[in-house]
Amino acid sequence: MTNENSYLPITLRLDDGQALVVGGGMVAANKTRLLLSRCPQIIVVARELGAEMMHWHQQGRIQWRNDEITEEFLTRNLPSMRLVFAATDDRTLNREVARIARSFNIPICVVDDPEPSTFITPAIIERTPVQIAISTGGAAPVLARRLRGQIEALLPEGLGRLAKFMRARRGWIRERADNVMARKRIWEDFVDGPGMEAALAGDDTIAENYLGAAVEKSSLKGEVWLVGAGPGDPDLLTLAALRLMQNADSVLYDQLIPETIMERVRRDAERVFVGKKRSHHTLPQDEINAELIRRAQAGERVLRLKGGDPFIFGRGGEEMEALVDAGIHVRVVPGITAASGCGAAFGIPLTHRDCAQTCLFLTGHARADGTLDLHWPSLARKGQTLAIYMGLNPLKELCHKLQINGLPPDWPAAIIEHGTRSDQKLHVGTLASLPELVETRKISSPALTIVGQVVEHRRHINNDK
Ligand SMILES: C[S@@+](CC[C@H](N)C(=O)[O-])C[C@H]1O[C@@H](n2cnc3c(N)ncnc32)[C@H](O)[C@@H]1O
After folding, report:
1. Is 254 an active-site residue?
2. Using CA atoms, how far apart are residues 32 and 43, in angstroms rounded to an integer?
3. CB of 46 within 8 A of CB of 88?
4. Which one is catalytic: 113, 203, 204, 254?
5. How many structural domains are present in the chain?
6. Is 6 inside a domain boundary?
7. Active site residue: 276, 277, 382, 465, which one?
8. Where a domain ends, among 75, 94, 121?
């Protein structure tokens, strides 16, 4: 049995090998068409050929063998093949071809039968030499084709021309920049700027001018991007965050960044975890700062990826200060902060004309002695919402202090656990009941507490994960 993750998309070189297609009908023709421009020797074995196959045969583009498809034939011919398609209308025969191909470790695709196959063909978008392959791992070929249509519509016609322009100038760039990272920068600058548009339009002279300018301005100057990754749902990343995630040389991240977001970081960017280590201590802030500075000074474009917004309880301010003081160029990209994400996830508005004209973001992070250093009279007020970050441990004290400073015990409150993630949960209570909920429901971090009448204005909305 295959699972949804058992397929690795690769592009297979066929210009120096031969391929075998078993079958001569329409289904076989569809697979043969994929091979025509890629493989110089296509052997089709079938008793009869359909019209299209016959046409290719007459043009000399395929070799037709009308042999009997026997075990002896397959055993003799399969070992020299780069790949095989079994595309007859006889399922048993197709599976027999697969069995023998597998015994020689030759890649085999049985059309419409993923089980005996060792590869499947994706839906392909062609802008030669650019190819985009879309696969659903055999789960839903129709979906792959629908996606192909949608992506096709987004891609500029001149994409192939652009790729050819870039291919033709790789040597020229190599002579001018001997360092891999510098070359990567030059190309990134080029494709992010007007040079790319010129090459797409076929205006090679103008494109070359821009490429020359990118070479001149190229230097291995590092920088740091302080980027907010939002509360966890990758759909809540900003476009700027996604772009920088795709361009970074390295990424420093912590435990608030879920794997589903890390998957969107460029695959070859170095990943450095600076969150909780086995000792359960985060890397000290000055060590993180020093690491960011060291990397930027070595010329890296460093992505400092932070949960939520970097400037809201994220120590982004301290990192920015240290970097700027060290002369490093810094860019800050805001993210959706946990309060906004959690409120939206469960239909809890943070302000409301009827009951909350103010919304305070506060941290329930306790001091070393376990007490909270907060101005209670200004927090324990009606007409406002409190969004409390990092407050699970001291929640008992927090709820108690809000009550002794004037809020009633039945004042509405809620905890949002793992907000915006697939396992998010809402726990609704009051100031009096909330601490017990944490215990009985074993609520875990990250969790955000919202206190105020806005909790009663929540509505069930369709944000289910
Ligand atoms: C160090 S603070 C970082 C806040 C972050 N910079 C932001 O803007 O959301 C960590 C706290 O944010 C809250 N938080 C972050 N992500 C959350 C999520 N997905 N669900 C609930 N609370 C979250 C929790 O209170 C957590 O303890």
Report:
1. yes
2. 9
3. yes
4. 254
5. 4
6. no
7. 276
8. 121
